[in-house]
Amino acid sequence: MSQVRRQIARPRPSWGWQDDAACRGEDLVLFFGPDGERQPERDIRERKAKAICGQCPVRAECLDYALSRPEKYGTWGGLNEDERASERRRRMRRAASAGISAVA
């Protein structure tokens, strides 16, 4: 008998939050960077992108979206790739701790 492979069903993202994003209309290169970008230029670009994110009314929704997918590249919700990886691990640890304490 053949086995049916099931994929984890992710809820379809709601894109409505993007209408209110502070980055709407900005150059995408500011948030994703050009190929071959050197570190000093990347640091400056990321600071500019994060400044826009810092004033964004939908920053939390943007970050939650990027963490749930996961988006591997760019600045989302004010965090770059490495910062999102750290946040993802932090949230997983917090969820695991909550699950353990709920059982105990």
UniProtKB/TrEMBL annotation:
Cofactor: [4Fe-4S] cluster
Region (Disordered): 76-104
Domain 4Fe-4S Wbl-type: 22-86
Gene Ontology molecular function: any one: protein-disulfide reductase [NAD(P)H] activity
Keyword Cytoplasm appears in the UniProt entry: yes
Co-factor remark: Binds 1 [4Fe-4S] cluster per subunit. Following nitrosylation of the [4Fe-4S] cluster binds 1 [4Fe-8(NO)] cluster per subunit.
Any single GO CC term annotated in Swiss-Prot or TrEMBL for this entry: cytoplasm
Cross-referenced Pfam families: Whib (PF02467)
Predominant place of localization: cytoplasm
GO biological process, one term: negative regulation of DNA-templated transcription
Keywords: 4Fe-4S, Cytoplasm, Disulfide bond, DNA-binding, Iron, Iron-sulfur, Metal-binding, Transcription, Transcription regulation
Post-translational modification: Upon Fe-S cluster removal intramolecular disulfide bonds are formed.
Signal peptide residues on this chain, from the entry's feature table: none
Localization annotation: Cytoplasm
Residues annotated to bind [4Fe-4S] cluster: C23, C53, C56, C62
Protein task: Acts as a transcriptional regulator. Probably redox-responsive. The apo- but not holo-form probably binds DNA.
Family designation: Belongs to the WhiB family.
UniProt-recorded name of the protein: Transcriptional regulator WhiB
Provenance organism: Planobispora longispora
